[in-house]
Structures are given as structure tokens and as C-alpha cells.
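Re: the 446-residue chain
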Amino acid sequence: MGYFPFFMDIEGKKGLVIGGGAVAAWKVGKLLPFAPALTVIAPVILPELLDNPAIVCKQRRFKEADLEGVMFVIAASDDQEVNARAAALCRERNLLVNVVDDRQACGFVFPSIVKEGKLTIGISTKGASPQVASALRSKAAMALPVQMEEILDYLGELREYAKEQIPDLGRRSTFLKEAANLCMEKGSPLTKEEEKCLLEKEEPEGSVTLVGAGCGPFDLITVRGLNALRRAQVLVYDDLLDERLIAHAAESCERIYVGKRSGKHSMPQEEINALLAKKAKQGRQVVRLKGGDPFVFGRGGEEILALKAEGIRVEVIPGVTSAIALPEEAGIPVTHRGLSREFHVITGHASDHGDSFLDDMKTYASLQGTLVFLMAFTRLEEIARELIRYGKNPDTPAAVVHGNFDGSQMTVRGTLADIAQKVKEAKMETPAVIVIGACAGLELCR
């Protein structure tokens, strides 16, 4: 089954409901707000249906001739043989049919519906769990402003007004988008003064917002970051991002992937800087979405310097860095009273100048507190060996943590002496965070 959520105009269209009991009444109740021309046929029909002037009721058994001229059919009889016969006839005539308690026979299904005036939200689980659909429907209904119907009526009228007042299509689109966002934020239609301010607002300058997406599941992004993503006109993103985040961008948003995937090399940093500047100079609101935090080995600083050199306005929205979050999910604090009063975050990624972080291992070995290595998974054996060589106790606790986008994580624990072998035996995959120090021996969340 591949149910696509078409929104069809059924106002005034003929619909047939076979059955007159509680299930049929429930189906009719869902359809009536959309004003179809409904006929209910059954030997016995509930009074609430018989007494409804919006429905034609016929107290008799279903006949094949009843299908003439109808657009859709609901087979909701208590008699499964009648439902099956009706479904077969509908398939022969290419009529849309919904059959109660027989998903395989359905040409369409009833979603859980939220309806507020012109707004209709339909939720379906393909019949797998009506309870889940119902729960999501309740959440969606609770998220709507109280004046949702008034807001949509207002925005519908505003669209016609904007066509007369704003000839430029791009500026008109921006005006309507900003008006809609403001209405949703305040929970009511705009006042005349607010409308005037939007109309007189100067053409916005292009800008770039660096947004930290957090690490792992999409819901670790900040509220501010998510709002920026939803407002973006251009989205530039790379690897280590939960794809569900990308779905929060507007349909009109231009999405540009600059990471490394399926054997393709990532776009060089200089080209990314130039791309961001180019899009911003076109007057567009650009979001540069980066895994973790933009300033923790994310080259966010380089992007900002390049953009400021071009005179482009830049904003930064922090994100949750994997240096703290992944160990935390595994129950490892990077600081803990009596164990560690400091922590150090170190990148294992080679620099463009060919420098190796291994050259500084003597310095790292002398540090107190917790050592956190990012992008160093493939160098784990060397790290452990060099730290021991420069004086770290081989029994120093060590842990390697790999996180997934579903919030789960895999943790391998050991000491400097055996952590590399344990990780190899566990067949852990990259990316992963390496934690070394007394705190790595803790397991607070288990």
C-alpha cells in the first residue's frame, strides 16, 4: 500500500455510505465538515443519521445500482459479505472505496484529522497504529493558536491585497511569509499598524546564520537554531546531521549539501566560504547548518572571518558539542568533584599544514583532568601508546563512545593499556569520541 495524502475537493460530490451503525455514523461525522452530498443506505439506520438534514437516508439493503454517479464509497456495514461485495464492485468501476476493518480492500483510508476553518491536517500510519495517529492529532491540535480560523481568513484576504500592493513577486512572497510567521507567533491576525510596518519594511539584507545542529538526534538542536532553520531561504549543510532536521526547512528553501558522501569529496572550505557569500549577496537569508557546535573544530570561525571580510552580516547560534554530550549520554561527566576539575578537547584531524596532534602528545600526557579527543578514532592505538610513553599510567580509565541519530549509543570501556584492543573486538564504527581520565571510569546513567 502506498497511500499518498491527496487533499481532494469533495464539497457537493456524491458519496455513498453503506451501513447505518455507530461506525458509519463516525465516518459520516468526519466527512460532513467538508460538505459532500452523502447518501446512507442500510436496513437499520441510527436516529442521529436519520434526523440529519445534510444526509439522504435509505432504509434498505445495498444494490449495485446505488454506485451510479458516486465519487467515493464507505463500506461500513456490520455484514462483512456486503462490504466485500461493495469493495469488489468499486474496484471494477475504479471507484474510491474505504472498507471498515479490511485495510487490503481499501482504496483510501481515513486519517486522524485536525480541522480549524481552512486548515486541515491529516495524519495516517497506514493502518499500523490508529492510536499513534490519534496521539499525534491531539498534539497538533494543541499546538494551534486559538484564533487559527481567524488567522487563515485574514491571510487569505491579505494575499489578494498583496497582489495589488506589491508587484514584485519576490518581495510579495517575503511579505506574505513574514506576515504568516508574525500571525503564528502572536496567535492572532495582524493589526493595521503591524501590516503597515511590514509593507514599509525595507528589502532585507542578505545574511548568514551559523547554526549548531547539536550531535546525534535532531531534537538536540536549540529552539533558536530550529527557528532559524525554518526561516532559511538557503540551507547549506554537511555530514553528521540527522536528516530529520533538513525536513524542517521550508519547501521553498534552497538546500545545498557540501559534505562528503557516497565516495564524493566534500567541498573545499574556500568554496564553501565563497558559496555562503554569494547567496547572502543575493539578498537571501542563509543558514549554515553544522554538526555539534560551529566553534568546536567546526571551522565556524574561518567562515565568519571570510564573510565579514565581504561585509556580510553574520550571526552564530551555539549547538551541543559531541565533546560533552556523547560522554554524558554514556554516563561519563567530563568534570566531577574529586576526580577532575578541568577537561581538554583535542582534535585528531590533521591540519592543512601537515601538523600532527601526536607531536603534542607529551603536553597532553602532562595535563590533569579529562582528555576528550574528537575525530581521532583511527588514531586510538597511537594515542594510548604515546600517552603511556610520556608518563600516563597504563591503568588510567579510558572510554570510546559512538552515538546514533536515534539517541542510542555504544560505549567501550577499558584503560589506556587495553582500550584499543577492546574497541577493535567490539567492531565499533566511526564517528566516536575518546575520553581519557578518571571520569572515564564512571557510569552514572546506568
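Residues 148-200 form one domain.
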